[in-house]
Design goal:
Elements lengths: L12 H5 L6 E6 L5 E7 L2 H7 L3 H6 L2 H9 L2 E6 L3 H15 L14 E5 L8 E4 L8 E6 L2 H15 L11 H5 L14 H15 L4 H16 L3 H18 L16 H12 L7 E8 L7 E8 L2 E2 L5 E4 L8 H17 L31 H14 L12 E5 L2 H13 L7 E5 L4 E3 L14 H31 L10 H11 L2 H6 L2 H5 L6 H13 L1
Parallel strand pairs: 7-11, 11-12
Antiparallel strand pairs: 1-2, 1-3, 4-5, 4-6, 7-8, 8-9, 8-10, 12-13
Helix pairs in contact: 6-10, 9-10, 11-15, 12-14
């Protein structure tokens, strides 16, 4: 039965608003539900949203305007990285052959590495076509340049043949290229096959140890001031990481799906062994790009989607220098002390750490060591007793900290001091997306297409974005405030007094001379100088 054609074009702006800030691929469909365009994006929210901006349609060329007019629906597929998006885009364009796509419409395919292991002397060769011929294939790879340099690395590091066919020629047997650790003429077929096996493992992603060795070589070269060699190794590392990075191989029946918060919550509960889906989650991230402003963010997800009304941001107060562990401890302590402390004891909760190392803080005057369930009940009773509207705050079902064992250990220590022994908490480490849990020595690794992992990545990325936004805001304020340092007659004390009264340099610019003159330490004459200075600058 065919789907009825809608009479009016739907308004897709609400759907765009809910798109994630993640890399992926989007498919545009017309009123008959046919795919008319496939595109990739580093940020799906920004890229897809640009199609529905009035300015885009006015400035676009005729072809793009026709495409925008034809869009009645769209769908997205999130992926882990831009190379994955490129691979998936090519796959979908070849499958749907959309009307408005030009690239990928021909038969050009991404490069793969082919190893015919049934040969006596297997060779590593590049190919664009995968056949059912018993050979072993690696790829496809989105970056052909990085792949070709990686093949050169395999030849020098493992001593494997990378071009030609059949048994090695006399020239290849004597070539200095294959002296790892000896010439091909001095080894047997079995010994050569061992080299092939090691090279295959490297291409398959088991390369961490060798990459670490190259990093050590790069540091040694830099320490000896051999910067040319250090740069060469650095570039090689970039190419190798690009080639050996794990990426999904997309087929027609294994395409990544869009966001399904309910399903992702169930998957996360199952992966972490939680008693139920974590309806409320809070994630913490530290931003310490410089020591001038060290800040932190806490974002709140409710039912798997952002609850921006309950976002919080912090300026680190008790930590000197860049110390993520100590900063995480401070933020977790401040967040949940505020939730658990009754208003009449609010003034007692923010005692600074004398030392973030095994510091002894006496919380016994403020808290009992009650389980989290009892703490939650007490908070609910307090809400009912309080008169007037109040923000709906409660303890989360899951806490996520951005980081590994260190950040998790310091956060757990603060929760234990508050008596929140039963509150679930995990750490998500960025590099390999490893999930650390209290009392578990080894991290949990979830499949890349797992809904549980995608949900954790979304909340972690949102916390990172929110922290960076706050950090940039403070830096802009500092830059704006520094203009007063150049104003003759405005000392540091007078500058603080002005900012304390008006709040920002922008408000000082809008203020009258008479208002500025009433500031402590500022008279009418200096007020006129300040107004004139700000007009000139």
């Amino acid at each position: 039965m065919t789907q009825p054609v809608p009479k009016e074009k739907p308004d897709l702006r609400k759907k765009v608003h809910d798109l994630p800030h993640k890399p992926g691929v989007y498919l545009m469909r017309d009123r008959f539900n046919r795919v008319i365009y496939v595109g990739k994006a580093r940020d799906l929210h920004k890229r897809v949203g640009s199609y529905f901006m009035p300015s885009r349609q006015m400035s676009a060329d005729p072809k793009t305007r026709a495409l925008i007019d034809s869009i009645w629906e769209f769908e997205i597929h999130t992926v882990k990285s831009e190379p994955e998006a490129l691979l998936l885009e090519g796959k979908l364009i070849k499958e749907f052959r959309p009307k408005y796509n030009i690239s990928f419409r021909d038969d050009k395919r991404f490069l793969m590495v082919k190893v015919e292991e049934q040969e006596p002397w297997p060779r590593f060769r590049l190919t664009r076509l995968k056949k059912d011929d018993g050979a072993r294939y690696f790829g496809p790879f989105a970056h052909s340049g990085a792949l070709r340099k990686t093949i050169g690395f395999l030849r020098k590091k493992f001593g494997v043949l990378t071009f030609g066919r059949g048994t090695p020629t006399e020239r290849e047997l004597k070539s200095s290229t294959y002296q790892v650790p000896m010439k091909l003429a001095d080894i047997t077929e079995e010994q050569y096959r061992e080299r092939v096996s090691q090279a295959c493992e490297f291409l398959d992603g088991q390369s961490r140890e060798m990459l670490s060795q190259l990093e050590d070589e790069m540091r040694e070269a830099a320490a000896k001031l051999d910067f040319e060699r250090a740069a060469m190794i650095r570039n090689m590392l970039d190419d190798l990481r690009t080639t050996t990075k794990n990426m999904r191989r997309f087929t027609r029946h294994s395409l990544p799906s869009g966001i399904d918060p309910a399903a992702d919550l169930l998957a996360l509960a199952d992966a972490l062994g939680l008693p139920g889906p974590p309806r409320i989650m809070e994630c913490f991230d530290i931003s310490n790009i410089s020591t001038t402003h060290i800040v932190a963010s806490m974002v709140n997800f409710k039912e798997g989607v952002p609850d921006k009304a309950n976002y919080r941001r912090f300026r680190i107060k008790t930590v000197e220098g860049q110390n993520d562990f100590a900063s995480m401890a401070e933020v977790v302590r401040r967040r949940y002390t505020r939730l658990l402390t009754p208003p009449e004891k609010e003034a007692l909760k923010a005692e600074p750490h004398p030392s973030i190392e095994e510091a002894t803080i006496d919380y016994t005057g403020d808290f009992t060591q009650e389980p989290v369930v009892e703490a939650g009940k007490r908070i609910e009773r307090k809400k009912l007793q309080d008169s007037g509207p109040s923000p709906q705050v409660s303890l989360p079902d899951l806490i996520i900290v951005d980081g590994g064992k260190g950040q998790l250990a310091f956060a757990c220590k603060e929760l234990q001091r508050l008596g929140l022994y039963d509150l679930p908490i995990v750490g998500l480490a960025k590099e390999f997306e490893e999930i650390y849990r209290p009392g578990r020595p080894l991290p949990l690794r979830l499949p890349e297409d797992s809904g549980a992992l995608r949900l954790l990545q979304r909340i972690r990325d949102e916390a990172h974005r929110f922290a960076n936004t706050y950090h940039q805001l403070l830096m802009k304020r500092r830059i704006a405030e520094s203009i007063l340092d150049d104003c003759q007659g405005v000392s540091e004390a007078r500058k603080k007094a002005l900012l304390r009264k008006f709040g920002s340099v922008a408000r000082i610019r809008r203020a009258a001379v008479e208002d500025i003159a009433t500031t402590e330490g500022i008279g009418p004459r200096l007020a006129e100088q300040i107004v004139a200075f700000l007009k000139r600058n």
